[in-house]
């Protein structure tokens, strides 16, 4: 009696532990197919710029300047209430670290406001629109024309910006839905109208020694760009192939161990 019970028990236990039984158990209850929830109501066209910039980036420095100069209201108003829309170029926090301290701290509040306005165009541009814009350079910004204009060039899909002092590029698109475009740029844009046209000649591409610029001038930001470029290059293909190799070897090893046990 007892003995046969044990056999039955242990055999059911054994059976329930076999992969087959396990698979059956898992597979048996037909998973309830999730009924597609009704599509959310179309969100209102309102884009909260503060909200957007505080979660992306990090763009804390730029956002702080936007708020302290109240330019955020100008931009938000343009986004809310115009058909033209707005395009904003937002430097990452790193870009502010790479600036010479004096270049922003010595500005008057009015100049600072102009500098922040200089980071936007009073019109919505998708990335593909810049190919066209490169033919009409210089382009007036929110801060104005002349010394507050930016030149754009499109080289095989990469949008480059040039303010004279700052040569940089759009490094990613944060948001681009008419009427609001927000693009990340690698550098703070310094306008000639504030920093003058006496721009130190950019040294020919000699990336190695980071020649520090002279006393009072804002960092001629090409040196920083050249320095940071290699780090941004995508991992090269032989590295990736090595990675695949390691994984396939791991899989083979595990398979070998399994075979030993079976
Ligand atoms: C926009 O977003 C900010 C930050 O999330 C929030 O404090 C503010 O209330 C929002 N403004 C509106 C009008 O919703
Ligand atoms: C923009 O629109 C939002 C939502 O309608 C509103 O709360 C906010 O005050 C507006 N801001 C400006 C500057 O017009
Ligand atoms: C810039 O500001 C610093 C103090 O923050 C001051 O020592 C320096 O003289 C100022 N330079 C100019 C050109 O105003
Ligand atoms: C730019 O686009 C407009 C229409 O959107 C077109 O009329 C104009 O010819 C274009 N300019 C160039 C230089 O391609
Ligand atoms: C922008 O382009 C115009 C016309 O091609 C040129 O005269 C000007 O020097 C350029 N400005 C900068 C900052 O490169
Ligand atoms: C890719 O990386 C390997 C070493 O990981 C290096 O030997 C090779 O030169 C690199 N190739 C390129 C194109 O950078």
Automatic annotation (TrEMBL):
PROSITE patterns: FAS1 (PS50213), PROKAR_LIPOPROTEIN (PS51257)
Protein's name in the database: FAS1 domain-containing protein
Domain FAS1: 46-189
Pfam families: Fasciclin
Residues making up the signal peptide according to the UniProt record: 1-23
Gene Ontology annotations for the cellular component aspect, listed alphabetically: plasma membrane; side of membrane
SUPFAM superfamilies, sorted: FAS1 domain
Compartments it resides in: Cell membrane
Membrane topology: Lipid-anchor; GPI-anchor
Function of the molecule: May be a cell surface adhesion protein.
Keyword NAD appears in the UniProt entry: no
Protein's UniProt keywords contain rRNA-binding: no
């Amino acid at each position: 009696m007892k003995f046969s019970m044990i056999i039955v028990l242990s055999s059911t236990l054994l059976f329930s532990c076999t992969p087959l039984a396990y698979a059956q158990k898992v597979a048996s209850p037909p998973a309830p197919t999730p009924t597609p929830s009704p599509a959310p109501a179309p969100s209102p066209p309102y884009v909260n710029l503060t909200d957007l910039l505080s979660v992306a980036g990090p763009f804390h420095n730029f956002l702080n300047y936007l708020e302290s100069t109240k330019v955020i209201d100008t931009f938000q108003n343009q986004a809310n209430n115009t058909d033209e829309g707005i395009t904003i170029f937002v430097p990452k926090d790193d870009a502010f670290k790479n600036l010479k301290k004096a270049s922003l701290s010595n500005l008057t509040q009015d100049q600072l406001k102009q500098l922040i306005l200089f980071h936007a165009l009073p019109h919505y541009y998708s990335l593909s629109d810049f190919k066209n814009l490169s033919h009409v350079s210089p382009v007036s910004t929110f801060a104005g024309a002349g010394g507050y204009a930016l030149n754009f060039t499109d080289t095989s899909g990469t949008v480059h910006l040039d303010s004279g002092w700052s040569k940089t590029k759009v490094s990613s698109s944060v948001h681009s839905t008419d009427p609001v475009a927000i693009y990340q740029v690698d550098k703070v844009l310094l306008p000639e109208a504030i920093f003058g046209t006496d721009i130190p000649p950019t040294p020919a591409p000699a990336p190695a020694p980071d020649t520090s610029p002279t006393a009072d001038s804002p960092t001629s930001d090409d040196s920083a760009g050249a320095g940071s470029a290699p780090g941004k290059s995508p991992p090269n293909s032989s590295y990736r192939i090595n990675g695949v190799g390691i994984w396939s070897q791991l899989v083979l090893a595990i398979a070998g161990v399994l075979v030993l046990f079976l």
